[in-house]
TrEMBL record:
This is CARD domain-containing protein. One of its GO terms (biological process) is inflammatory response. Residues 336-426 form the CARD domain. It is found in: Cytoplasm, Cytosol. GO terms for cellular component: cytosol. It comes from the Eukaryota.
Length: 436
């Protein structure tokens, strides 16, 4: 089953950054757009993906960063033929055989004014050349296959590739050779699109008396992970994000349940853009001590009709303020413990290599009904211990915080020394090694 809401899936699979040497990502020149006469879509192309795709396997990609480039690079290891979905970007790859797919976002060429992006532009590589078809998530509320197309780079030029299939969530394109792929609209449309309201909380100073919420209005097929890479000092607030917005529409934000809350600006425009820069549409400044607020987004062009609202809990900010207070009253440094998701994502590579009691942990998760018999079989069917562990991590991370917490509990039960060593702060580990 396709994961259509990438924002919600993102929090489950938040991954720590790994630094790799490499060249900075440069803007790719695009000389022109060739638009061959599109083929008339068949009626079969209107059928939902589930009728064509019996099983899609969602995977957590490995994340890397090149030198001097803040944007992440993704890598997906596909174990064989079939369909594999990236849990962060929503991309789906139909593989002919086992292979490794690497991909990252690049900038659309702003020198082509007639090219109106309808999704991120991805540079995709596969050394084994075994990607047969590519599914690109779109965010059109009323999808018109005649107005939505795929841009593909060949020999430094961009061509218009007519999709082989379009449904309410995805656009499918046949892959001839991998390079740049991205969705674009053939003409501007004021029709509403599926969108998301994303909140990042930032603190002001080392021991803040206030906090600021950065509020982003984004198209739903823009991965939240891409935006967070531009704001490393902020915390993503997990909340309901889905809404329907109009491109270039004017919106206002209201903060309830708080006596003093400063919102800037009074009205903002939904640009429906895909980078390269991501600026918050609104900023909400709150005083210290605020634990929860209610936010309402209103459509200025429709008599201030409410189009999205949510209750926001600022637990992360309260933890941060408490941490600062403890640190100021003690000479010893204090560190906030990672959540279960952060622990698993931070130590994913170490867990894959060092956990030896994989099936014992899987047994506990099966008994506690965290995983199903089918999921357990997928784990046990893998040949090596490392592959079993990789499959188990993919499974529990897809199950959310409850499943990940249950995994950590079982890991602590069967391999307490390993768990304690990974949980220990980096500074403590270094000190322990120096004494040895």
């Amino acid at each position: 089953m396709f994961v259509s809401d990438v924002t919600e899936e993102y929090e489950r699979v938040k991954t720590c950054y790994h630094k790799l040497p490499g060249n900075p990502v440069t803007k790719v020149p695009m000389k022109c757009v060739k638009t061959p006469k599109p083929k008339a879509p068949s009626h079969k192309s209107k059928t939902h993906a589930q009728s064509h795709v019996p099983c899609v396997r969602a995977l957590i990609p490995d994340i890397f960063h090149a030198t001097n480039d803040r944007r992440p690079r993704y890598r997906l290891d596909c174990c064989g033929a079939g369909l594999f979905q990236c849990s962060l970007t929503g991309l789906v790859f139909e593989m002919e055989k086992k292979g490794e797919v690497s991909y990252r976002t690049v900038d659309w060429d702003s020198s082509l004014p007639t090219l109106m992006p309808a999704g991120p532009l991805f540079r995709i590589e596969c050394p084994q050349r075994c990607v047969q078809q590519l599914y690109l998530p779109h965010c059109e509320e009323f999808c018109d296959a005649q107005k939505l197309s795929v841009a593909h780079e060949i020999n430094g030029e961009m061509e218009d590739v007519h999709p082989s299939y379009v449904d309410a969530t995805y656009v499918r394109v046949e892959v001839t050779n991998l390079s740049l792929y991205g969705l674009f609209r053939k003409c501007f449309s004021h029709l509403q699109v599926q969108s998301q309201v994303v909140l990042f909380q930032q603190q002001a100073g080392n021991c803040p008396q206030t906090c600021t919420l950065n509020v982003f209005l984004l198209p739903r097929n823009l991965p939240t992970f891409e935006v967070e890479s531009y704001y490393p000092g902020c915390t993503l607030i997990q909340t309901t994000s889905n809404c329907i917005l109009s491109p270039k529409g004017r919106y206002g934000l209201v903060c309830e349940s708080v006596a003093k809350a400063e919102i800037q600006p009074k009205s903002g425009t939904f640009d429906c853009g895909y980078g390269p820069n991501y600026q918050p549409t609104f900023q909400v400044c709150l005083e210290a001590g605020v634990k929860a607020i209610k936010l309402i987004l209103m459509d200025r062009g429709n008599n201030d009709k409410a189009v999205w609202e949510t209750q926001v809990t600022l637990a992360a900010g309260q933890q941060h303020r408490q941490l600062c207070s403890e640190t100021s009253s003690s000479s010893a440094p204090t560190e906030r413990k990672d959540t279960a998701s952060e622990f698993v994502m931070k130590h994913r590579d170490a867990l894959i290599q060092q956990v030896s009691m994989v099936l014992h942990i899987a047994d506990d998760l099966l008994v506690d009904e965290i995983i199903t018999d089918e999921m357990y079989s997928r784990v046990s069917d893998e040949r090596s211990r490392q592959e079993k562990m990789r499959q188990l991590l993919d499974t529990v991370c897809a199950g959310g915080e409850t499943a990940i917490s249950a995994f950590c509990k079982a890991l602590r039960k069967y391999q307490p020394d390993l768990f304690a060593n990974l949980e220990r702060p980096t500074g403590a580990k270094a000190s322990q090694m120096s004494h040895k």
